[in-house]
Records
---
Amino acid sequence: MRITNKYGLSRSRVNLAYHQMQRPTENILRATELIDAPRMRMLKLRHWDEIVIDCTDVGANSIYGSMKHLLVAGAVDSGYLSEVKLKWWTNEDIIEWISGTPDLYDKESQIIEDNKWTKTWKQVYRWEDDGDQFRDWEEQLNVYAWLLRKVMALDTNQLVINVSWMDWTAYRVDPNKNNYPQRPDERKIMSLWDNNKQQLYVLDRLHRHISATHKDNTPLPLCTATERWAKKDKWAVMKKGRKSALSVVLSEQNANEILEKTPEATSIEYRKGADKRCVDYCIVNQFCDYWRDTYAKD
């Protein structure tokens, strides 16, 4: 990977970007890779030395998140396990290990805590069509719970995300709505799966990645809509002279029904969906046939 510096930032900022970008290892599957798209991991493995990104494309949330991890690790007492590196042998030929590093494990209460520094769009907009915007956090922490049990024989009673919203602002808070964070720092409880569900999930994801690893010159499995952060096509019912829509629905038929029943409605505006991650956040999209066929020609 080569990281450029188009905007003349300091050398330390470029070095920070290099530090954040981890080359994938073929025989080790990290927990964050396990829960993510096999296609993305394989494209990184195949094309890592060809990837060129600017240091400003390595998000501040990732860098500040790492800084928060360091600060928290320095503030914990002996009642916690902090940043313990866990590795479980898979007994497979290609991907031999699953690894993960939980931020904190409270030995007394048996709580796993993970610290996140991210933008409010995570709660407000992401995956707004299915309302499951914290699914990846839930999956990640359940994988950590599974690893702690497998590697260290430690049980888990609760999964907690300590999230800091980096762009939080008080004027957007509405106590009657939950779509915007109420405070700049929040403690979110993730659903803890039973042992069997964790086991089935980890093994299913492992075999998906193993299957993709075998595909040298054949098409890789397509990323799912969730993995692409896909936004569905929508139809907005509009009123002449008003910028915002009267209503936004997921089918043209519903939009036409609203148009007929609403006297002030004057038109329908089609809003094409998009794969937000593919377009704006995937560092290997130039090597992806789905991205080339769908977006490169635009």
---
Amino acid sequence: MRSQIAIILICLIFESCNDQQINTKPITPGKKTTIQQQEAQRLLLPDTVISILVKEVSLKHSRPLTNKAAEKILYEYFRNKGVIPGSEVPAGSESDQNLLCVDYDIVYQIQSANLSGGIVSYWIGPPDLNGHCFQPIKAIILNTDRGFIITNEEFIPQGFVIDSINENTIYGYEYECGGRGVLRQFRVTLRTNDEDYFQYKVDLKNHDIKFFWKDSSDQPLKNFDNLNRWLNKHGKQLVFAMNGGMYQTDSSPLGLYIENGKVITPLNKRSGEGNFYVKPNGIFYITKDKKAFIETTDNFKYNSNIGYATQSGPLLLVNGKIHSSFKQNSVNVNIRNGVGVLPNGEVIFAMSKQPVNFYQFARFFKNAGCKEALYLDGFVSRIYLPSQNWVQTDGDFGVIIAEVSAK
């Protein structure tokens, strides 16, 4: 994953209470890990699925994360943020409330088929902070191409206590120290980003991406099976395909559609109901010299070098920022597909495997490194991706974006 999360400045008045022994199962090696601090509130639900946000996870040099190594990583990480270990607090500064220090607690190892690391437990606050109700913070350390690194400073709220880990599931509870009681149980299933989405990355210089709508008889192709049959007649075959934007009842594109340099339907700047009209919406287009772009509808300028284009909405990312209307905890979930463009010009096509909201879908593209991304459609979404053992040939939609090759 990727993004660093700012240190939480904890300004709490802690009420001392007597120790209470809580019977818990021992922590066992688990599987998978985490998300951003912003995701914490979702854990108020008994069952939650969260996704790891580090893209360079590696098992090339998989080895257990020891307590000694975890402590060193933790202290180095916070030293870079101006927070020193508690053991290094200068003499006479113990009561300085403006000074923050960090103290290591313990690490719970994670070792699975695709993740290696652990959940590290630690305290952060003024040097003289104490009290039995002061729960440690939990962060994630993972083995990446850069070695073990902290991927998230906090992935569950501070009041939640880990009880046990079994494979990819964390069991725990929210404990209220003052009242000496368990408020609720929780279970968190941890997944990697790769597991949540079908994704296909292409370098346009090496991949033949085309847009399709109708066959040579002027009939809408409507699905990948029809497209593949039509291609076979012309000595070609499908490598990858995805529905490519919203359409009307007659399967015609709802917005701008350009195929082989020809404008088939014009730019749609109207206002209306539905996702297409959530502004800003935009256009995904590919030039004749094989360069991909995503542009807002308002800023789009037609030029004769455009080979293919499809208009849809809303835009998921604009200049690296998630659409301002998306809500992190929205219950508006659906299977969704979309497209993003990376700074190096490569294109990522993606479809969620499970229903997700717009914020989650936009965050996927942001975490993948895209600066611009466009939503294509929802429950009608299909993807043809035999290289990942996933082939959907049904469907009834308009534009199809596809990679083709010689048969």
---
Amino acid sequence: MALSTILETMRLYLPGMPAAALIALANQAQRSLVGRWPWAGLNKTCRIITQEPYTIGTCIMIAGSSAVIGVGTAWNVPDAVQALTTREIRINDEDAFYGITAGTAALITMDANYAGDDDADATYSIFARKYSLSDCGEIREVIYGTNKPLERKSAEQLFALDPTRKDTGEPEYWAYESLANGIVTIDLYPVPDDQYVLLAVYSRYASTLSALTDVALVPEDLVAMLGAYYGLLSDAVRGRDPIKAQVARELYQQYQIRLSDETDRDTRLHPISDSIKDFADLDEAETGFTDFGVDHRVL
């Protein structure tokens, strides 16, 4: 059911309400429904293939400069350094590390000026601890190996564990790094020292309904009923209208019955358990290294 059909249903209860107000109510209802139940239609999994640190060659460092000049490097080769600007660089195993804003085969620009001394033969390590997922609303689990969930921590907890991020190895913890408009970035601890295949289980991002052809990611009849209820309730309270209040109560009772039916049906469709169970059986060749090491699959 597209937004146009949702609006038609809502107009049966809210005749005369402007389209913009109806759309706002529909989006309010969708947000409420998305957070109320882990709908099967929203479930998604993807593989995150971590990247081992890249240390080939040496580099020339100039104190106070953001430039890193490579010697014997190939920083623009995807197999060597995938998604260079999503990674970070450490010079001479110092505590400080820097983000990368641009890079070619032998020149990297850091996000801050180098705080160390001049060095014409410096060692370095380019590492990846942050990984992004698109079309992501909320992460439910991050799994490594055969059904081994990583423990979720806060960003502050990861920083307290290792502020220099020098610890490396198999990922044990994850934390939200950033969330913005369906793009979620997570931080892994310790910093991966090899290519590990992780499975992220998450809900899809429910974008705002705006065009009449937009389709809700949750049962559309529930969106229409709950949106209409919100509108009737607002009108009843604002106008002290007992008739609209009664209609709102009756509609909400119908909505609760429909919600119970839909969640019972959805329970039978919920794919997370099978996804986790089957993860270990899927061949790595199926992962399709896309989206900077992230393979998105709608189940």
